[in-house]
Sequence to fold (136 residues):
Amino acid sequence: MGSILLVESDVITSDAWASAVTASGHAALTASGMRSALALIREGGVDLVVVDVYDPRAGVIELARGMDALPDAPPIVVVSSSPAAPQISVRIGAALFLPKPCEPGELAAAVAQLFERLHPVRGIDDERTTRTRRLG
Fold:
């Protein structure tokens, strides 16, 4: 599946999210802040970023700006109970917003659905059609 970066400062929540994401077949990377998250994203190999916006001033806008400078920036999922989070999600172009409280299983299910939408699994018929186009 994919590599999911979880940006969450609370270790217990981060561990719960990572366990749920891993159980659904993805690899989980964790970062406790926006700077470390951006460094991991710049290294490459991140398919999706989940960010807990506990405070609109916590750097999520700067994270999004830093990601905009990258050629293949992964989409962002915002998770928050902050009243400003839905507007911030729109402002940064987040692929999805999840309000808190959000159970780890809910997060994993939302990530799986979004990942599948962004990276559809090719079926046998799709592969046969592609092969035919290449040959023909």
Q: What stands out?
A: The chain has one domain: 3-135.
